[in-house]
Amino acid sequence: MTIAPDKPTTAEVVVPEGHVKLIIDGVEVIAPKGELLIRTAERLGTVIPRFCDHPLLEPAGACRQCLVEVEMGGRPMPKPQASCTMTVADGMVVKTQLTSPVADKAQQGVMELLLINHPLDCPICDKGGECPLQNQAIAHGRSDSRFHEHKRTFPKPINISTQVLLDRERCVLCQRCTRFSAQIAGDPFIELLERGSQQQIGVAQDKPFQSYFSGNTIQICPVGALTSAAYRFRARPFDLVSAPGVCEHCSSGCAERTDYRRGKVQRKLAGDDPQVNEEWICDKGRFAFRYATTGDRIKRPLVRDAESGELRESSWTEALQVAAAGLAAARDANGVGVLTGGRLTVEDAYAYSKFARIALRTNDIDFRARPHSAEELEFLSGTTVFTNPDNGVTFQGIEKAPAALLVAFEPEEEAPIVFLRLRKSARKGTTKVFHLGQFTTPAVEKTYGTLLACVPGAEANAINALAEHASDVVELLGKPGAVILVGERAAEIPGAFTAVARLAERTGAKVAWIPRRAGERGALAVGATPNLLPGGRHVANAAARTEVERTWGVEEGTIPATPGRDTTAILEAAANGELSGLVVGGVDPFDLPDPALAEKALAGAGFIVSLELRPSAVTAHADVVLPIAPAVEKSGSYLNWEGRRREFGATLEGTGSLADCRVLDTLAVEMDADLFTQTPAASAADLARLGEGAPSGSSLNVAAPLQSPAGSGKAVLATWHRLIGNGSLQVDEPHLAGTARPVVAKVAEATAQQFGLTSGGHVTVSTDRGAITLPVETDDLPEGVIWLPTNSGDVTVRRTLGAGHGSIVSVSGDSSFGVKS
To answer: Which residues form the 4Fe-4S His(Cys)3-ligated-type domain (predicted)?
Structure first.
């Protein structure tokens, strides 16, 4: 028996509010109002060829490669339309190159026009093998051309900066680079020049492409017009092996792609992660990777020879035995302090934390290889350690915030991807940005921000006075979603964290602490601090200690019950003979608040073990130097400033280098202790067994000090690190160094007159430690304030002056330039 099928029912598709219904290639589609046709087609799986279009850039319609056939109200438009500039409309009928001969012919014609002048550089072009023009010429182009005139030529390449090269004849004038610079980075130094057939990309004479984000223009260029000076002619894309990774340079934790060949990294590219860095990374993250292949890298353990007093290469067995014996003796004498630095992965920092408590039986451990304070530690212990993307500030939260107050934080220099989010939100008119600082920096201008100027060191007083002098700021911070972003420089300002906490409590704004270094947030979480155990547990809490001891399988009472010394106290104790040894992991003494104290501590410590990549001021004093793996040669994870875990695998395997956690695990075995951190995976698993502790609350109550006049011939110093400077991870990269901002001092016009300074002349800044002389510029700083970069070029503020943000320094005019000590 045959049964007739049920009569099909055609239910009317309900169009949600704010959406429209259209047809693309015969398929009915529901799309949100305002969506571009090219995006709607992408959601259907239809890829329309394009060059100028980019999802994070405003539409330009420059290349015309994305032409499609469009009908409205049953009437076809007279000619194909650019799908990257046309938004969807109700009842629209769209035919792409898949179903429309008209659209296909139009796209082929545009490709023919683009190839009139484009050179046949494919065999030598860096873009060959990953070039959209190359791919689309094959997929959407004609097999021959009707144009046979001579192609236009230019001298090639031209340096638009020390790290970006331009081959103008390859350019298809898509304007991606100019739009990125003007819209995303806010650095409109690269522009379209000339008109008509002579139109080209270029920069103004004597004005190089000065941007911290210029490398992104190389990556988004759809042809080989923009290339990297460091990568040019080094490899072809099909010669490279690619691996996903995470940037090791700052606390944002940007997604990256690392390309390597024959065991050597050739380049890094931005990864696509909408929750964090979208599709952008800064130039430091892109280009600063050659530190791992410098000629002076330490690859074998070093032991100080008893007779000559010099370091000599040794076997791992000998080095570990000497280190274990020396540390055991120092532990049993006056104890050992541990300085981990802020660049470690979560797994490595956890190994240091566990090594200090079990092998050395001490809480004298601190990751803060920079200016720090007890107030900062109280703030971090009570609030920051327990924040994560679910309950704290995030990148996407910043983008939606009605207001953002930045305290002691220079985003473009200290966290570039945070800066891009702030600029993006401010540019859309979503976020009002307030900068509590000293002068109108490029970041203030590019985020359309409002400067709340104050004297260095008086930021806490300025925060407390906001309700009286800037009630509009407090009102905006009271709106849902408002954020307060605090930089690590706040540790140099007494009362700053207390003032921030009280302001947040009064307004309801969320607070985020954004350090400069990649490993600081993770080190805090795993207890690489004198007062915390892993998971934010306080060492003074007996129940918390017992919980950790049981999980670790050690006897009760192994972990000391009282908080340990912080970085400065550890150094003072070592210098005074109150500590007999030090374990130092990748710390640069010249980053510390008092480098002279660090040198004295290194000279006075009885026994020093250094885990290091390259020779440093620490290895010069170390009794044993144990080489460790750089980020690309190990796996692990970083905890970014949001509290988001950013895992990565080993890019280069089989190099023989060891992660810190493996070195410490083996060293602990020599000292009759088990860490169970033989690998990053084992370390992560051991940490996971502990889980998170319970918040212990915060008792911040540091008063903001009264500011006294600097005195005759003196000024208050403002200083912070620049993104590109003298950092140890920027070595062996001259192209990146060439884009560093000019090293100058900045003063107000009135201050310049007071000290007899002229803009373009020189100024000498001095303390009882030494003096720095450098060019001076006038800017809108408060009177009696002078700004210097902390560690750029010949200017090393902490090493030369022994000073920091808020210090009183002597100022005088000088006609010479240099550093005196």
So the answer is: 102-141
Rounded to 10 deg, the angle between the 132-140 and 101-114 helix axes is 130
Give the separation between CA 483 and CA 486, rounded to whole angstroms. 10
> In a 3-state reduction of DSSP, which class is residue 679?
coil
Tell me the per-residue pLDDT of 140-192, one tens digit each, with 9 for 90 and over: 888 788 888 888 888 889 888 899 999 999 999 999 999 999 999 999 778 77
From the list 480, 507, 502, 512, the residue with the least C-alpha distance to 407 is: 512
Pairing state between β 808-813 and 93-95: unpaired
Instruction: Give backbone dihedrals phi and psi of 576, rounded to 5 degrees, phi first.
Output: -95, 5
Strand stretches in 148-225, DSSP E: 158-159, 164-166, 190-193, 200-203
Residue at token pair 């929750």 = 275
Per DSSP, the three-state class of 302 is strand
Distance CA 530, CA 569 (A): 10
pLDDT of 820 > 50? The answer is: no
Distances (CA, A) of 365 to 341, 346, 532: 10, 15, 10
Strands 403-407 and 432-437: parallel
pLDDT the model gives residue 1 = 43
Q: What confidence score (pLDDT) does residue 438 get? A: 97
Closest by CA position to 379, among listed 532, 251, 517? 532
Alpha helices in 560-657 (DSSP H): 567-575, 595-604
Sign of CA dihedral 550, 554, 555, 557: negative
Q: Which residues, at least 6 apart from 632, have a Cβ–Cβ distance to it below 8 Å? A: 245, 258, 260, 265, 289, 292, 650, 651, 652
Sheet holding 581-585, edge to edge: 311-313, 302-304, 624-627, 607-612, 581-585, 336-339, 365-366
Give the pLDDT confidence score for residue 139 in this predicted structure: 86
Which two three-digit tokens encode residue 250?
Answer: 């700052």
CA distance 534 to 690: 7
Helix (H, G, I), strand (E, B), or coil: what is residue 225?
coil
Structure tokens at 17: 């509010």
Per-residue pLDDT at 147: 80
User: Hunting for tokens 């390259």 — which residue is that?
Assistant: 614
Instruction: Kindly tell me the sign of the dihedral angle through the C-alpha atoms of 373, 375, 376, 377.
Output: positive
Closest CA to 375 of 785, 705, 799, 719: 705
pLDDT over 90 percentage in the chain: 83
The DSSP result for 246-283, as a single string, is E-SSSTT--EEEEEEETTEEEEEEE--BTTTTBT---H
